[in-house]
Ribosomal RNA large subunit methyltransferase F (Daejeonella lutea), 304 residues
Amino acid sequence: MIKPDRLDLNEKQQLHSRNKHRGRYDFQTLVRSCPELEEFVILNPHGSPSIDFKNSDAVKTLNKALLSNFYGIGLWDIPEGYLCPPIPGRADYIHYLADLLDDGEGEPRRGKPVRVLDVGTGANCIYPLIGHKEYGWTFVGSEIDHLALRSAKNIVEANHLTKAISIRKQSSVENILEGIIHHGEKFDAVMCNPPFHASLQESMTGTERKWKNLGKRPEHNDLNFGGKDSELWCEGGELRFVTQMIKESASFVDSVKWFTSLISKKETLSLCISELKKLNLSDVKFIPMSQGQKVSRILAWKFR
């Protein structure tokens, strides 16, 4: 077992160099792309245009504007209460995945030959949308929640992307890759943003803490970016989810080149690496990511 390769990129505090969201939001341009955003634009204490990030409708409308302006996604919406992800951080995962797939060529691989499986694509379908628009990749998204699956399919169909993105139902609460990857299929990569809480109570505690940081009391245990139970927590949290994915990956040695997952907790990373040591791997990497004060990391592994 080789020692994991840490791609620390000088412990960066900024988004990826190819990320289109490194600068301040240009609200004038965003409003032109999505006129409904105008009603949510306010002046922050510094006198600059912004939105109230405690307002879930404002956050969702900002996402609509970003997807329209930067990625040409004209129709995007999610059911009430479902996860409304921060676009810049989601784009970062895509760009670092592109670096991982470049095979040392120094240029990202583009076009249909690159095929990616997005585990738990969610009602928002963000990773396939950005990955296809940025690099022309094709995607399969898996989802266990029926309403989230229907929402993701609606977004794909509304934007005429059915030839590039397909959504599959995961019927088993126990499996992650099993039942999704078909016999003989090939993927360049699997990506995953796992539920990181271990219980409903832990999820609610995290929600209350984030509301406190935003300076507002929680309402109905919801957050400005939302999130259903299956999106925010599972039994055993991200550690159980990712270790299960690691175990299942051994059954798909010939199907997937790189397996990857986001890891939110440092302790999860070390425990997952211990689990990886049990496998016959050719490479393991972990890539730090950060957006402001939020720090995360990508764990990636491939077999011999």
